[in-house]
Write a structure and sequence with these properties.
mainly beta, four-stranded antiparallel β-sheet, 34 strands
Length: 468
Amino acid sequence: MKPLRDVEKTRLDSYEDAQKNSIHRSSLLVPVIPNTQVSISFLNHFLIKRKNQNVGLRLTAVDAAGARINSRLFPIDEPRVYTFHLQRDFCPSASSFLVEFFSSSNIVIPFPAVMVNHRGPQSYSTVHSFNRVLNDIFEDDEINTVQVEEGAIDIAQDSRASTFFTVFAGQNRLQDEIGLRFKNSSTSVSKRIPVDIPRLTHQSFSLGSVFPEIEHQQGVLLIQQPRQEMFYGRLLVGQTLPNGDLSANHSYYDNSQIAGEYWDDSHPSHRTYPIIEGLTTSIRIYPIQSPSTLGFNVQLKDAEGNTLATSNEFELLSPGTNWFDIEINQLIHSLGVNAHDVVAFTLVAQPKAGNTPMRINHQLVFSGSGLVSSINVSMQNFNVLHSSARPRTTWGQLIHSKDFDTWLAFANDGETPECSTVDVKFFSENGLEKTTSVSVNQGTGSQLLLSDVLGDASGEDQFIWFEV
């Protein structure tokens, strides 16, 4: 784990001198998961944002023993979305894929903005790149000096679903043990599991098979990975059904057992999210923040940014055994607010004493009739470095499909009480498809349905990327 203050310093250094400590390679490992087809997609932000035309992508297919099957180099030189269906179009027999970007110019960020997509029989699981083979010993010093457990892991509560986690080996064979620790208000249990994973491959574990006493239990699950030289990675964690459908994301650092990272004041952290009609929305907060006692509340917002109601305070001690699962739809009902008036909500965290932890994370959970979709999110704080001279750029992936609906939601978490208007560009593999503007009042959110922007999808699913 790289301390957040060091992350902030790296950003500041790049603002002041774009060639300082330059980066020329970034990478990720992509797992093949049974009963799914895996693909990657990304927007050529190297060119669109940084005007870098000198980028190449090398794909390497790796077999179950960690040996190379084949590699191929692709030029990345057009302002568009790039999609690679790895099994279908590159190597159907691979166990995993090593994806590497190279450039003679400064890439700036060693973690590529690539989405990994696993298509199940009736599902998509999509997750940002979450591991990499490091570039040199200096990056290993920065990234791997501080070792922590992995948290932010949801245990499936639906009896039809199983919880799984996936461990990855870097450029060396991984022969070691992983530690599992579970705690709630009534129990604390732990277990160690031996692993032997060939280099550049992975091994998935079902919680029901390796730790059956906690399957479908409510509580806090923490997993300790072995330290691996020249490799950095989160766990791929999620839930799966017997037919192969899965919903997964990556784990996040447990900061509660190390020397804390705090801002220089007690200014609260916050994050605003949309309410999407037809979906159940929840916030799950695990005690993985720097040692602290935090008071959380939820503010319900209308389209103008007015606060319609505020919940009672939820107090969380970290480290600790308690955790919160706040069901927003039930909260709206309990506070006597008309559900049709609520378009967004803001989660606020305030330290009860001392300064605010720099990393306050939680799970944002959406669910319908099937698997839940859960993603770990960091809260905003106005102490985060922002350059007034450089416009902020955000980009991400959407799925344009006749089988799925995709929403793009915007939140205005700005410090000044004004309406903000942003230009939103939509890119496909053909390039820029459409540009539209979106206005959002401070303290609330707005959303677009992708089919309203691009029309109904037909044919093969497409990965559409937006840039704001």
